[in-house]
Amino acid sequence: MKILITGRYGQLGSELHDLQANYPQYQIVFVDREEMDLSNADQIIEVLDKEQPNVIVSAGAYTAVDKAESDQQLCDAINHLAVKTIGDWAAKNKVKVVHISTDYVFDGNSETPLKETDTPDPINVYGLTKLKGEEALQTSGAVYVIIRTAWVYSTYGANFVKTMMRLMNEREELGVVADQIGTPTYARDLAQAIMDVISAQNFVQGIYHYSNEGKISWYDFAVAIKEINGYTTKMNAIASDAFPTPAKRPNFSLLDKTKIKDTYSVQVPNWRTSLEEMIAKI
Ligand SMILES: NC(=O)c1ccc[n+]([C@@H]2O[C@H](COP(=O)([O-])OP(=O)(O)OC[C@H]3O[C@@H](n4cnc5c(N)ncnc54)[C@H](OP(=O)(O)O)[C@@H]3O)[C@@H](O)[C@H]2O)c1
Questions:
Q1: 138, 153, 242, 257: which could form a disulfide with 238 (CB 3.0–4.6 Å)?
Q2: Within a domain: residue 170?
Q3: What is the pLDDT of residues 52-95, one digit of tens each?
Q4: How crowded is the C-beta side of 151, counted as CA atoms within 13 Å?
């Protein structure tokens, strides 16, 4: 079986690349912007025609959430139109697609863990383009699994954990938003979940939610990063209003993981265990 994975040098793409040694039975091809520019439909089709994968993992995306507010066209081309092109090609060639989406397809007003059946209402431009990508894949006729995830971090790339560690090194005091609730996702764990889905006996089409287990705020996350690293930075819990950003962020983005656990027997580690693992590795 041949698997083609987009977003080679992203957080998730890099973790999938690390995992490939555990799957010698698969031929895995990674592509990034150089080999396959996701804003170029002709190039997407050209590469897929050449590689002829049996499974496509769509991990590449426009992820600059704040920039997306003023860069809607490019964000839509990558997060929506590229997914449509991939879906159409996959339908025509009878190929499966595992696509990664986001909690930002929701408005953040829920008070209970978000289920796959909850109605999306994107909170920002990035979330809207990701939802359009989901819908395009669902209507393409391709066999698909869409995994919505949230708060992704890794030893690779730029993310909250690495930013906090840099700031805690530089500053004596730090304010972190305490009124946005969710669960972080170690990209390594998400990569493993994707490989579990691909390797399962039955590929059960649908939308799934995946993050680590637990329920915390960004402030709680930052405090744990401080404790695990042994920093002495004074931490202040602040409200979202005190930290305005161009794109709105959800107050609540806790994902219910029951469906992916039940369907694919995916293990979902606790957020703190995975954070400790990542920090030990960095
Ligand atoms: N990060 C999060 O907190 C988060 C939360 C929820 C959902 N997600 C979703 O999870 C998936 C993986 O995210 P991630 O954290 O791994 O993102 P990431 O680290 O930002 O990586 C995104 C990847 O997409 C590639 N890419 C961007 N524009 C491209 C283009 N025009 N052509 C080809 N490749 C392009 C990037 O290439 P370059 O390296 O060249 O830029 C990079 O390899 C994405 O679908 C994202 O929407 C992420």
A1: 242
A2: no
A3: 999 999 999 999 999 999 999 999 999 999 999 999 999 999 99
A4: 29
| Range of the structural domain that residue 262 is part of | 2-159+184-214+253-269
Q: Is 151 in the pocket of ligand 1 (CB under 6 A)?
A: yes
Distance CA 210, CA 193 (A): 8
CA distance 225 to 18: 24
Residue 279, domain member (yes or no) = no
Residue 169 lies in a domain: no
Q: For position 259, which CATH number holds?
A: 3.40.50.720
Report the SS3 class of residue 58. Answer: strand
Cα 40 to Cα 74, 85, 187: the distances in Å are 11, 10, 26
Question: pLDDT tens for residues 108-156?
Answer: 999 999 999 999 999 999 999 999 999 999 999 999 999 999 999 999 9
Report the domain count for the chain: 1
Judge whether 219 counts as a catalytic residue: no
pTM: 0.97
- Probe residue for ligand 1, chosen from 5, 33, 126 as the CB with the greatest number of ligand atoms within 8 Å: 33
